[in-house]
Design brief:
Chain lengths: 113, 113
């Protein structure tokens, strides 16, 4: 497994502002992902964070709204830009290890007011 | 289009009972099926997983049953305890080394003492 640390754990932000969420892993991993979990809902994949290249976004998610950085094999950031109340969700970092298993961080609970 | 359908949405059982959570998938390219357990305020934790070439897998009190022809799989929790009260998600992955999870909508389990 891996120890995945996310910062901040929660935040309350004003609409129109941006928040950058950090994900730090205790070991080098090839695959890192960002998911969104809306209140009381399931998890939806936002994008794959690729080291050294642009992130790969899923349908319905765009780089201008959710820019992602992956400067090395242990760290990634997700920015939620120009926030609106609809962006209020839990944002989760995930890493893939061992060919099959995916592990998650504790999540960042974002409330936009 | 929901690719992994999960039921029931919520479940209440007495301590010692055997809750059963069911999932069905449509995409025959899925070849790895993990279950995740999520407590409030926490990220999902990998519980148990199965591949389609196995009809059943047991780990402790948790058992997955898999029916490849019906494209269905289920989670059984033996001798359930109040500490098992959580939200359970089934998921599916397509392709070795993919790690990209398609989640069911989740089942909120409450185990009553």
């Amino acid at each position: 497994s891996a120890v995945i640390s996310q910062k901040p754990s929660r935040d309350i932000c004003q609409r129109g502002t941006s928040l950058t969420i950090q994900c730090q892993v205790d070991s080098q991993v090839t695959m890192m992902f960002w998911y969104r979990q809306q209140p009381g809902q399931s998890l939806t994949l936002i994008a794959t964070a690729n080291q050294g290249s642009e992130a790969t976004y899923e349908s319905g998610f765009v780089i201008d709204k959710f820019p992602i950085s992956r400067p090395n094999l242990t760290f990634s950031t997700l920015t939620v830009s120009n926030m609106s109340p609809e962006d209020s969700s839990i944002y989760l970092c995930s890493v893939g290890i061992g060919g099959t298993e995916a592990f998650f961080g504790q999540g960042t609970r974002l409330t936009v007011v | 289009q929901q690719q992994v359908k999960q039921s029931p949405q919520s479940l209440i059982v007495q301590k010692g009972g055997i809750p059963i959570i069911n999932c069905a998938y449509e995409n025959t390219a899925f070849d790895y099926f993990p279950w995740y357990q999520q407590f409030p305020g926490k990220g999902p934790a990998l519980l148990i997983a199965i591949r389609p070439d196995v009809s059943e897998k047991k780990e402790g009190r948790f058992t997955i049953s898999f029916n490849k022809s019906a494209k269905q799989f289920s989670l059984h929790i033996m001798d359930s305890q109040p500490g098992d009260s959580a939200t359970y998600f089934c998921a599916a992955v397509s392709g070795a080394g993919s790690y990209q999870l398609t989640f069911g909508k989740g089942t909120k389990l409450s185990v009553i003492p």
